[in-house]
């Protein structure tokens, strides 16, 4: 697998170097600040399905119940600037996997926490953009805090339109400084830090009057404490390098008055993990004020090279039984409806996420018992004035 | 107790080449679309992210539930999503 991983990383790196050192826009035709101030709000609720008792050795079978309030204000400033501010307020309660032990048949069983975990997360991000004749540049700053976690992030992004605005190049860099102070417990770390640097480049091309294609490469490097302090046995490498190649396609079908979105991401990292993500959305206009959007996403990942289905304390080296590092596949089915007029929009959406070892691209011999299923519901509005 | 790796060998090479082909073929197959012919491309449903708040929420949830992440942005901060 080492060799395979190296080949994949090498191929992705070569491809990244082949892309012009800049990249894509969110709008293929125009570059100007918004003409009106836009405010938005979303309320989302999702409940992770309870675990089957047969998968749990001890602790609660009840997983997280999460509520999220999202606020956004996008406003023009002067003739050439805009400020985009988002604030998220998230509360969660429930239980989380702490580790695994062998069951009577040798398969892993979960050791869960009690259903008493409560946490609150607040996340503020401000993006200031300067618009030019044929491009734009943005400065991004953010801060998020939880009961036991704090993160600062900074970013710079830019876009340049060329070729009579048929081609857009873009690029950016970002940096995040994260600190974790877990709830005190014997043998648990008291305060740890990690740093993450990211960079991306990409290109978008107008194919014809109905379709546009975008491709970008993202490289990320994390350094510091990357383990999970709440797991009973968890020791991960102190660095991680990853490359993600995203390709996105948009096509307007005039005869159906619908737009098709098709996205693909290939991911590889030096923990030996490779993943594939495919997304489809169908944006169907029902009438001038109503759009319905069915969506489908498929995801498959291989395991990290130090992943162990069952915790073994006392062995040397890196090890983790985190289900997020296990091999699995997942599907998401979604349906959204957007009622809209010239200055308002109302959004209602529902999604169902199912992770399972059988959904992976390859064979998973031992499925992790903690894989998730959840239902996500969202309502919200946008208003411009 | 062992756990097989998910075997991506049979897809990875093809899927690496696929985006390259898409970009190359897309660029060579594109037509000179005049500014007055770009009305459909400017439609809300044709944006890369028609609903940025929804995209941000999805990214955050998948970041907290899956082992990989990364997109065309300079990224935000991490989270203690256990």
Which short descriptors sum up this protein?
heterodimer; A: 385 residues; mainly beta; Porin; 16-stranded antiparallel beta barrel; 3-stranded mixed beta sheet; 1 helix; 21 strands; 4% helix; globular; B: 82 residues; mainly alpha; elongated; disordered N terminus
Walk me through the structure.
The complex is a heterodimer of chains A (385) and B (82). Chain A has 385 residues and is mainly β. Chain A has one helix at residues 2-18, and strands spanning 38-48, 56-58, 65-77, 81-94, 97-102, 108-112, 117-132, 135-145, 149-162, 167-180, 192-208, 211-224, 234-235, 239-253, 258-269, 274-287, 290-301, 319-320, 328-340, 344-356, 373-384. A 16-stranded antiparallel beta barrel of chain A has the order 1-3-4-7-8-9-10-11-12-14-15-16-17-19-20-21. In chain A, strands 2-6-5 form a 3-stranded mixed beta sheet, with no helix packed on it. The model of chain A is unreliable at 1-5 and 13-29 (pLDDT under 50). With 82 residues, chain B is an all-alpha fold. Chain B contains 2 helices and no strands. Chain B has helices at 9-28, 52-65. The longest helix of chain B has 20 residues, at 9-28. Chain B is elongated, with a radius of gyration of 19 Å. Chain B starts with 8 loop residues before the first helix and ends in a 17-residue tail after the last helix. In chain B, 44% of the residues are buried. The model of chain B is unreliable at 1-7 (pLDDT under 50). Chains A and B meet through α1, β1, β3, β7 and β8 of A and α1 and α2 of B.
What gyration radius of chain B follows from the Cα positions, in whole Å? 19 Å
**Integer average pLDDT of chain B:** 74
**Domains of chain A, number:** 1
Give the helix/strand class of chain A.
Answer: mainly beta
Layout of strands and helices, then pairs:
The complex is a heterodimer of chains A (385) and B (82).
Chain A: H1 2-18, E1 38-48, E2 56-58, E3 65-77, E4 81-94, E5 97-102, E6 108-112, E7 117-132, E8 135-145, E9 149-162, E10 167-180, E11 192-208, E12 211-224, E13 234-235, E14 239-253, E15 258-269, E16 274-287, E17 290-301, E18 319-320, E19 328-340, E20 344-356, E21 373-384
Chain B: H1 9-28, H2 52-65
């Amino acid at each position: 697998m080492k060799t395979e991983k190296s080949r994949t990383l090498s191929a992705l790196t070569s491809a990244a170097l082949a892309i012009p050192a800049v990249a894509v826009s969110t709008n293929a035709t125009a570059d100007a600040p918004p003409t009106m101030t836009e405010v938005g709000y979303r309320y989302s609720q999702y409940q992770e399905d309870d675990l089957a008792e047969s998968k749990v050795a001890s602790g609660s079978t009840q997983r997280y119940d999460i509520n999220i309030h999202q606020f956004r204000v996008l406003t023009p400033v002067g003739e050439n600037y805009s400020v985009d501010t988002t604030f998220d307020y998230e509360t969660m309660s429930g239980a989380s996997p702490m580790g695994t032990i062998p069951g009577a048949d040798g398969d892993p069983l979960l050791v869960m926490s009690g259903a008493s975990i409560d946490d609150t997360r607040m996340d503020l991000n401000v993006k200031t953009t300067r618009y030019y004749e044929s491009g734009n540049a943005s400065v991004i700053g953010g801060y998020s805090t939880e009961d036991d976690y704090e993160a600062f992030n900074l970013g710079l992004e830019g876009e340049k339109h060329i070729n009579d605005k048929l081609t857009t190049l873009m690029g950016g860099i970002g940096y995040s400084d994260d600190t974790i102070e877990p709830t005190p417990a014997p043998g648990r770390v008291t305060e740890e830090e990690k740093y993450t640097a990211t960079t991306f480049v990409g290109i978008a091309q107008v194919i014809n009057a109905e379709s546009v294609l975008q491709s970008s490469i993202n490289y990320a490097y994390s350094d510091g404490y990357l383990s999970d302090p709440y797991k009973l046995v968890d020791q991960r490498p102190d660095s991680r390098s990853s490359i993600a190649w995203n390709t996105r396609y948009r096509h307007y079908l005039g005869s159906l008055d619908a737009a098709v979105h098709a996205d693909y991401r290939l991911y590889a990292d030096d923990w030996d993990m490779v993943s594939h993500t495919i997304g489809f959305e169908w944006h169907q206009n029902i009438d001038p004020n109503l759009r319905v959007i069915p969506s489908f996403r498929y995801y498959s990942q291989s395991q990290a090279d130090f992943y162990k289905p069952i915790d073994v304390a006392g062995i040397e080296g890196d090890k983790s039984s985190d289900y997020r590092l296990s091999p699995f596949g997942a599907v998401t089915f979604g349906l959204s409806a957007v009622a809209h007029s010239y200055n308002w929009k109302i959004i209602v959406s529902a999604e169902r996420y199912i992770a399972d070892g059988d959904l992976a691209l390859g064979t998973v011999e031992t499925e992790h018992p903690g894989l998730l299923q959840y239902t996500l519901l969202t309502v919200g509005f946008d208003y411009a004035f | 107790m062992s756990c097989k790796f998910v075997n991506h060998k049979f897809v990875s090479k093809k899927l690496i080449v696929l985006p390259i082909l898409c970009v190359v073929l897309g660029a060579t197959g594109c037509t000179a679309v005049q500014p007055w012919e770009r009305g459909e491309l400017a439609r809300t449903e044709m944006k890369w992210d028609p609903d940025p708040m929804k995209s941000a929420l999805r990214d955050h949830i998948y970041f907290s539930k899956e082992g990989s992440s990364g997109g065309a942005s300079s990224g935000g901060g991490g989270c203690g999503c256990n």
